[in-house]
Amino acid sequence: MSTKDAPARTAKGLAGEPPRILVIQAPYYGEVVGGMLAGARGVLEGMGASLEVVDVSGAFELPAALRMALGAPDRWDGFLMLGCVVKGETDHYDFICQAVCQGAMTVSSEYGAPLGFGLLTVANLDQAIARSRDDQHNKGAEAAHAVLGQIALARRWHFSHWARR
Fold it and tell me: Is 92 a catalytic residue?
């Protein structure tokens, strides 16, 4: 489904306490990631969530930061990853995108961590800007809806915290 065809989403109620969310962001493209964070904040704060935001150097570091957070003494109900990779002239783009996507899926699946995955993988900066604007196509907001849905499932199934550390 393309961004322009995506349905408008509204936040559904979430049983229990307001969630605590750790946002792990790679602000290499500051305007883009900032726009995605603003979209996510609007959704999450609208649900009463509290957010903690940490920065990593680049997209490649996102999965490792998620894994480190799972072992931290603090406890979050869910995690949100935000970043952007723009295709360049070399294969670097392909390697980074594959590694980040696989790493995030591996950590999230292995530990049962509710994750909203907001990594833009785009051909050019214009595409990234279009997906980080303050409108219904904001991918940060979409990732926020995703993590809220995962938290709702974890609560429904009484999955309190990570299966393994």
Answer: yes
- R_g over Cα of the chain: 15
Confidence of residue 2 (pLDDT cuts 50, 70, 90): low
Convert the pLDDT of each residue in 86-130 to its tens digit.
999 999 999 999 999 999 999 999 999 999 999 999 999 999 999
Counting Cα atoms < 13 Å in the Cβ hemisphere of 165 gives 8
Of 92, 137, 145, 158, the catalytic one is 92
Q: DSSP secondary structure string, the chain? A: --GGGPPP--PPP--SSPPEEEEEE-TTSHHHHHHHHHHHHHHHHHTT-EEEEEE-SSGGGHHHHHHHHHTSSS--SEEEEEEEEE--SSTHHHHHHHHHHHHHHHHHHHHT--EEEEEEEESSHHHHHHTSSSSTT-HHHHHHHHHHHHHHHHHHTT--S-S--
Please report where in the chains the tokens 């990570």 appear, as a residue.
162
> What phi, psi does 90 have (nearest 5°)?
-120, 180
Name the pTM for this structure: 0.92
